[in-house]
Amino acid sequence: MRERVFFALALALGGAGEGAADGHAEAIGDAERGAEIWVYCSGCHQIGPDAEIGIGPPLTGIFGRRAASVEGFPYSKSMSRMGSDGLTWTLTTLDAYIENPLVLVSGTRMSFEGLEDPTERADLLAFLREYSDKPSNIPEAAPTARPDYPKLSEETLALVGDEAYGEYLSSECTTCHQRDGSDQGIPSITLWPEKDFVVAMHAYKQKLRPHPVMQMMASRLSDEEIAALAAYFGSLSN
Amino acid sequence: MTFNRRNFLGVAIAGTAALSAPRVLGQAKPHVVIVGGGAGGATAARYIAKDSDGAIDVTLIEPTRKYYTCFFSNLYIGGFRDFASIGHTYGGLASDYGVNVVHDWVIGVDRDAMTVTTAAGHSFGYDRLIVAPGIDFVEGSVPGWSTAAQNKMPHSWKAGSQTQLLKAQIEAMPEGGTYCMVAPPNPFRCPPGPYERVSMVAHVLKASNPTAKILIVDPKEKFSKQALFEEGWNKHYAGMIERVGPDFGGANVSVNPDAMEVDIDGTVEKVDVCNVIPAQKAGHIAHAMGLTNDSGFCPIDPATMQSQVDENIHVLGDATIAGDMPKSGFSANSQAKVAAMAVRGALTDSRVFPAKYSNTCWSLIDTEDGIKVGASYQATDEKIAKVDGFISQTGEDAALRKATFEESLGWYAGITADMFG
């Protein structure tokens, strides 16, 4: 374990030198500190030229890659669905995923609760970026211009949903999503924790998640309406 | 629209007293009668019964015991679904939700007395009536064709035996024969439907009769998902499909069912199968009730789906003038939920929320090549107006098209459970 960390760190330093030359890599974060944060990931993921499938898929070349596209890795149904919907790993989507995996992929099998600190995420992303083939081709925004996604205030998260309103609104969901939790072609949305439901809907509303039907459905829901839906679907488990 | 419930109930009771109908005087529970058990009517029945929790009596009058969905009937023609899988019964609505399901034809409605009578001689009083009769055909819209000729030249635009007949005719076509579709003018049920059907017919013929031809005679300049269908036809069925639009006489067509001939702007074509989808209007009963206007469809209040002619009646689905919403099973299902909420609000003390409508139409072009179009809508003073929408793109990769197709299977399971329980 220890050895792998050091090995990764050495590579990162090498890469950082190259990146600094074209003036881009430093804009994301500190790759050297990112290499230290990588220990959270390295129990399951490998990175580098010889990286293989472990408990998780290898992260070499992750930037610009379609979600769920490493051949031979047994992705969750939820991640595969995101991949076919068009989710691609960019600075923005990776940042959101690392902050809270459930924002982007509700049924992910990655057992990682997320990195709250934006600086830590930036550093980790800077580290990961060293292992993508052509980092100089990857567009990136300056760190100050990179917002957190989905944009969710504490107030929004704290909203108490109106369950009766949620029940009415839910009738729009159940044309496709079955209340009994069937999961053929269209994912189940019953028995979700309220918070997961809220962040997923906001991720669609802010077009972080790719599915066009869900983007459309979520985009006209107010914060209160999303809370109402979450309260209703959450109540089904009681 | 707000309603003075006390006045409304007063009128209803007065109406009952004047009648010899089998409606109990002073009946405590309000009664909703629903005419038509498709995507609109069945959904409304289930939602009113479920959400009122026994506070409203619901009677659903539908002539057929088994309902075959129009949506996915093209997939049956293409061999992607068996016939049994698109058939549904009303047993769950009766047993699980307490809906009084009556298999009968409505032959009369007295809007003043607020009663419905059926062919079997029954009479049902209502506090609110929901009318969801689907479509009927405009006689004479395709000269030479009438409902009497529907076995020689099937429409198959109401699912059931007509769908089976068309599939049998396509499978019996002679080698190198011609399938002709006379496509309908706007507005009509299921805008992408004719073109999905052509795709499914082509899928069958490509495997069993590859030299056969498909001829579409179309009065419309443009059609739903046109770029997507045309891309798919070139990719999967190159050289098989020809479409004659209005510039080449597609709007000037007549047929001779006995001779199996189609006259396109003076040029007579001999065909082997002729699928005539005539111009459409609201289902007959809506006309008989006086709910339609000159367009042949029913104007409604965008916020509640109430008839503009009679506020005690709500109209749903293909029979309505629903603003920007297309005529589809999804739309009817969506409208039914708004109407169910409005009806419960008027007849009980349940809360009323703003109307939200949506629609998505999936179509299948070939195996695992699915596409979709959809939009969300809201009620404005004038109409049901589009808020936002999306459509599949040309050139999408196979994984996305496969996911879209699989999504349509999930939707079918979802909406039929939403309708029938």
TrEMBL record, chain A:
Gene3D superfamilies given for it? Answer: Cytochrome c-like domain
Superkingdom of source: Bacteria
Every copy of the Cytochrome c domain together lies at 29-132, 161-237
Which Pfam families does the annotation name? Cytochrom_C
Taxonomy, top ranks, is:
Bacteria, Pseudomonadati, Pseudomonadota, Alphaproteobacteria, Rhodobacterales
Organism of this sequence: Rhodovulum iodosum
Which keywords label this protein?
Electron transport, Heme, Iron, Metal-binding, Transport
Instruction: Tell me which PANTHER family the record gives.
Output: CYTOCHROME C
What is the protein's given name?
A: Cytochrome c
UniProtKB/TrEMBL annotation, chain B:
Residue span(s) of domain Sulfide dehydrogenase [flavocytochrome c] flavoprotein chain central: 163-278
Question: Residues in domain FAD/NAD(P)-binding?
Answer: 31-145
Q: Which residues form the Flavocytochrome c sulphide dehydrogenase flavin-binding domain?
A: 355-420
Q: Does the keyword Flavoprotein apply?
A: yes
Q: Which SUPFAM superfamilies match?
A: FAD/NAD(P)-binding domain (SSF51905), FAD/NAD-linked reductases, dimerisation (C-terminal) domain (SSF55424)
Keyword Flavoprotein present in the record's keywords: the answer is yes
Q: Which UniProt keywords apply?
A: FAD, Flavoprotein
* InterPro entries named in the record: FAD/NAD-bd_sf, FAD/NAD-binding_dom, FAD/NAD-linked_Rdtase_dimer_sf, FCSD_central, FlavoCytC_S_DH_flav-bd, FlavoCytC_S_DH_flav-bd_sf, SQRD, TAT_signal
Q: Which PROSITE patterns match?
A: TAT
Q: Can you name this protein?
A: Sulfide dehydrogenase [flavocytochrome c] flavoprotein subunit
Q: Give the source lineage, highest ranks first.
A: Bacteria, Pseudomonadati, Pseudomonadota, Alphaproteobacteria, Rhodobacterales
